[in-house]
Every structure is written in structure tokens, then in C-alpha cells.
Design goal:
With 46 residues, the chain is mainly α. It is 46% helix and 0% strand.
């Protein structure tokens, strides 16, 4: 059975995982858009 799908798993699960990732990214982008922009740090400037 080397190189074949396991019995009972006819379809790979990647599309569902990608959909969840895109939903999480969309929620994060909405949250970032609502927050005021942060000031850039000037710690390393000399």
C-alpha cells in the first residue's frame, strides 16, 4: 500500500485547512484595521 491513500481517506483534508486559515486571516485583518496605527520605534537609530 506504499504511496497510496489510506483506506477511508478518499479526499485530502488540505482544502478545509486552507479555508480555516483564510477565515482567521480575514478576522485578523479586520481587527488590525480597527486599531489605531502604531508609531514606529526609533530604538536603533543613532
Amino acid at each position: 500500500m506504499a504511496g497510496r491513500e489510506r483506506p477511508g481517506n478518499a479526499v485530502a483534508k488540505a482544502p478545509k485547512a486552507m479555508a480555516e486559515l483564510e477565515e482567521a486571516r480575514a478576522r485578523w485583518m479586520e481587527k488590525q484595521a480597527k486599531q489605531p496605527p502604531k508609531k514606529k520605534s526609533n530604538r536603533r537609530a543613532r
